[in-house]
Predict the 3D structure of the following.
Amino acid sequence: MPRRKPSCVFCEIVAGKAPAYVVAENEFSMCILDIHPFAEGHCLVLSKRHVPWWNDLSEDEVTSVFRLARKVARQLKKAFSPEFVGMYARGRRIPHTHIFLVPTHAGDLLDGFFNALERFQVMPPELAALRDSKRMTRTAARIRKAR
């Protein structure tokens, strides 16, 4: 018996089969409110095509996703007057390309998270070793070579 492909909630939303609070969309992308928000206005910009990782999108899809993210980030700035709009992509829980857009204010949950992450980034010896000039040179060369 063939294995059934697991359903994807974002594909269901794009197809109009699942409910969502749509904020904006274009040819290749859609922006919806996150139903588990970190802040009021927390949005997800997702590709309309099911692609697990953003770096596997077509050039048109990448352009579309980031243009829509910029447009909505500007709308979030006007609507909520945040200090900034945080943007990050992870996609581990739902493996369908999506970018988080979160209006962030000084002292809120996400601001505290990123402040803690930045403190962590400069403290552990394992991470400090990554800043060594020779290591940085080798790392940059390794990335350039991996075409």
